[in-house]
Amino acid sequence: MSQRRAEVVGLGLIGGSIGLALRRRGWHVSGTDIDPARAVRALEMGVVDHAGPDTAAEITFLAVPVRSVPDAALAALASTQGIVTDVGSVKGSIVEAVNHPRFIGGHPMAGSEQDGIDGAEADLFAGSVWVLTPTPTNDDDQLNLLRSVIVDLGADVVALAPEHHDALVAVVSHVPHLTAAALMRLTEQRGNEHRALLRLAAGGFRDMTRVASGHPGIWPDICVENRPAIVEVLDGLITSLQDVRSLVAEGDRAGLLTLLERARAARENLPSRLIATVALCEIRIPVPDRAGVLAEVTTLAGTLDVNIADLEIAHSSEGERGVLILIVEADAAERLRSGLLALGFRPAVLPLQ
Amino acid sequence: MSQRRAEVVGLGLIGGSIGLALRRRGWHVSGTDIDPARAVRALEMGVVDHAGPDTAAEITFLAVPVRSVPDAALAALASTQGIVTDVGSVKGSIVEAVNHPRFIGGHPMAGSEQDGIDGAEADLFAGSVWVLTPTPTNDDDQLNLLRSVIVDLGADVVALAPEHHDALVAVVSHVPHLTAAALMRLTEQRGNEHRALLRLAAGGFRDMTRVASGHPGIWPDICVENRPAIVEVLDGLITSLQDVRSLVAEGDRAGLLTLLERARAARENLPSRLIATVALCEIRIPVPDRAGVLAEVTTLAGTLDVNIADLEIAHSSEGERGVLILIVEADAAERLRSGLLALGFRPAVLPLQ
Q1: Is B200 part of the contact surface with chain A (CB cutoff 8 Å)?
Q2: Which of A19, B64, B151, B247 is most buried by its number of CB atoms within 10 A?
Q3: What is the rounded distance in angstroms from the CA atom of residue A209 to the CA atom of residue A191?
Q4: Taking the domain A280-351, which CATH number applies?
């Protein structure tokens, strides 16, 4: 069996970590960067086998700024026959701009896009969530292939519709980042008190503003590309803070306690990144002769927060019609079965030993 | 020399840590709690030598909820001849309500008031900031004594006027806490997407909402007691977020970059909690025959963020008039000298070897 080949475009923290992780698993990795010195550095560090493009790449990973992804994707689709995927923090505009059967949008929720290649680690994705945003345009087998490679890097793959991804990251990433900046701005506005103020800043404040210490360069693009979702979430946050202000101004102890108790309960529901050993189920789904069924099913699973532990497409001998077999946590099987029924599928759930 | 005696009222995380820290330094510590079982537990844990009050206490530390401090302070002032201090997160209303020469408001900015005695640690205050909010009512010698005990626990003492403290903690603690709750509420409002959303919550979101996981019980009181400052800072944050929303809605990349670059610079200015080895200066200040001069000078130092490394009052043999000797970082000496001149003092700055 010949060595599998990948190319990484953009050799920062994420691109470098993908290179290291693939090489550790036996892949041949080529890498390019807009800055040729960085490609040389990647070669020296053992992040890539080869500094330069690879027209034979089975998968091309685009780890470039959000704004540069569409052009980079079109170039990679033109020069290779393989899958092209990206790691950008915004997906809707990118997927729409590229719109190609071999392009599958991705977003590893790991590390920070803000550091350089020297922070690259082969284990960066272990235990993290890696979102894929397939569309019905995508080929099922290629989606399955990309998914299996990413799972092999140690990540949990969550498939979401591109617009859904963008709405969710506005809540858990983009607006929190902007809020950290707004909190830091409050300290600046105290003028002469600034220094005394910062000495009082204990752990909580440091935690809350840590993201503001990252390199700001990537954020203007993210904000512009995900503008509608960010504006909507900011409006929600402003309304929420106005409600809090009213509770404080009115001295409404009971209302404040309710607010904080609910926040605490929600915070405690933040799932652990560690996957527990749990009972698994098999779900068998006869799939019709139509493209994009895998994207449809995996996106449903992402929306319902059903983690797909394993996945196989068993084609029938007569042709395209086949059976999609998903392995999921037993607790989540009924949720996914109901969702599949609502979409017109006929799933069967079988317990696994 | 007889053993020094202290009493701790309220045996939670902070009260328990004060007990452990004092006992390690040879003090005899008594402790009481509204819940007698907790005092027994403190005795078992070695947090206190004695479960019960101590009318001979040189210092009584009130580690009770903010709302309970004034009554607890009046009781301790009536039953002992010593200093009474508290650890509450709001100071103005407490200091005004108690208004006694032997009551000095305090606020250790360490740990979390939200955990119980089982989290108590003798080293909790090492390297942390402990605010004192003396007023001109306070006796200089007693302020000096309390200050030296707290420095001995490993904390940096920062003296601030009570209202100034309250304005600053609204910025670095109270409003950030409420903001974390508002961010968690955003995730709740997504309804069915809630679970999928929380799986995408990576390190940044976890950091920003960590404070929301603490016990909410103490916060309604804090919000009510510090109402004016919190409302003012919340208004500032809401305005700031509205500005951010405009930048995003307008797609103003340059404006967003400026905002985030300034936030990053401010974040990088957060002083380390580690004290560097720095050159020190001595400032000698002839002090007039009036009470409260130490409170005035140390509060000025707090406002100007001048860390007082050591402090001595040398009384002249003729009576009350004397010399206040401060040891401060050389870099900060000129700042403090100017402030002292502006208040009518005649400081002399001398380098130390």
Answers
A1: yes
A2: A19
A3: 19
A4: 3.30.70.260
Amino acid at A77: L
Domain ranges within chain B, ordered by starting residue: 5-160, 165-268, 280-351
Cβ-Cβ contacts under 8 Å, B126 against chain A: none
Q: How many CB atoms lie within 10 A of CB B16?
A: 30
Contact A294, A134 (CB under 8 A): yes
- Please provide the size of chain B in residues: 353
Q: Which residue of B has its CA nearest to A251?
A: B224
Domain B5-160 sits in CATH 3.40.50.720:
yes
Looking at residue B75, the DSSP 8-state letter turns out to be: H
**Does ipTM come in above 0.90?**
no
Distance CA B13, CA B20 (A): 11
Mark yes or no for CB contact A220/B257 under 8 Å.
yes
Cβ of residue B234 closer than 8 Å to a chain A Cβ: yes
In the CATH hierarchy, which fold is given to the domain comprising A165-268?
6-phosphogluconate dehydrogenase C-terminal fold (1.10.3660)
State the CB neighbour count (10 A cutoff) for residue B99.
Answer: 12
Q: What global pTM score does this model have?
A: 0.81
pLDDT one digit per residue (tens) for chain B, 353 residues: 689 999 999 999 999 999 999 999 999 999 999 999 999 999 999 999 999 999 999 999 999 999 999 999 999 999 999 999 999 999 999 999 999 999 999 999 886 545 788 889 999 898 888 999 999 889 888 999 999 999 999 998 888 999 989 999 999 999 999 999 999 988 887 766 666 777 788 777 888 888 888 888 889 999 999 999 999 999 999 999 999 999 999 999 999 999 999 999 888 877 654 444 567 888 888 887 667 788 888 888 888 888 887 777 776 555 556 788 888 888 888 989 999 999 888 888 887 75
> What does the DSSP assignment read for B275-317?
PP---EEEEEEEE-S-TTHHHHHHHHHHHTT--EEEEEEEE-T
What the block records as the tokens of B326 is 């401060």
Across the interface, whether the CB atoms of B197 and A171 are under 8 A apart is answered yes
Cα of A18 to nearest chain B Cα, Å: 18
Distance from CA of B104 to the nearest CA of A (A): 18
Say how many CA atoms lie within 13 Å of B198 toward its Cβ. Answer: 23
Task: Write the burial class of residue B293 (CB in 10 Å: 0-12 exposed, 13-18 middle, 19+ buried).
Answer: buried
Q: Give the distance, in angstroms, between the CA of residue B147 and the centroid of all CA atoms in the same chain.
A: 12
The answer, for A176 touching chain B at a CB cutoff of 8 Å, is yes
Which has the closest alpha carbon to A297: A284, A278, A280?
Answer: A284
Distance of residue A299 Cα from the nearest chain B Cα, in angstroms: 11
